[in-house]
Amino acid sequence: xxxxxxxxxxxxxxxxxxxxxxxxxxxGKVLMEDNFSKxxxxxxxxxxxxxxxxxxxxxxxxxxPGTVKRAxxxxxxxxxxxxxxxxxxxxxxxxxxxxxxxxxxxxxxxxVDLENYYAFEVAPLVGIYSVQRLQNNKxxxxxxxxxxxxxxxxxAGDEVKLSxxxxxxxxxxxxxNRPVIEFEAAAPEGGSLVGFELAAAQTGRSKTxxxxxxxxxxxxxxxxx
Length: 225
Prior knowledge:
It is a single chain. This protein is mainly β. The chain is built from one helix and 14 strands; from the N terminus they run H-E-E-E-E-E-E-E-E-E-E-E-E-E-E. Strands 1, 2, 3, 5, 10, 11, 12 and 14 form an eight-stranded antiparallel sheet that branches. The termini are far apart.
C-alpha cells in the first residue's frame, strides 16, 4: 500500500513539474547564468536601496512612474547563442478604464555598449511588444509596438520569459519559448554583449513592482547551428 501511494505521489509530482520545465531556457551548454542571489558587479550597475532590493525572488523593484533600469553584462561577447531572462510584472492602473502607459521588461542583444544595442521589449499586462535599436545613442524603432501573437496577455505577477535565438545576423525573439518575430539586423563582428531592461509605467500615480529572477546564455541547440 505504501509503495503504491509513493508511486502515485511520484506521478503527481512529475505532472506538477511539467509547467516549470516549459520555462527552461532552450539550447545547449550554459555559457553564463545568474539567479540574482546578489547583484554581480559584471552588470555594471548598483542596487538603489530606496527602489530596489535583492531578495529570495531575485532583483525586485518598487519603481515610481518613469523609472527605467538598463544593464549590459561584461561577462563576455556572445554569438550564435540563446539568451533568456525570466521576469514578473505587477502594476495596478490608477484608472482601470483609462489605463496609463504600461510597464515593460526587455532583453538586450547585439550590444556593443550602452549606446549601441537592440532591445526586445514586452509589456506583458497589455500583451504588446516592440524591437528597439539604440545606435550612437539615438533611438530607432525597427518594429513598433504591436500585439503578441494570439493577442496573448499576462496577469499581474505571472512569470514571463523572454528569449532570443541569435544566429549570424538573424535573431528569433520568443516569449515563453513561443516565437514572436524573426528579425535581421547588423550583428557586431566577434560577438555581442547582452543585458536586461526594467521599466515602470511612464505616467500615473501607481508604483510598479518588477522582478528579474534569472538570466542565462546557452549555446544554440545542435539542430539550430
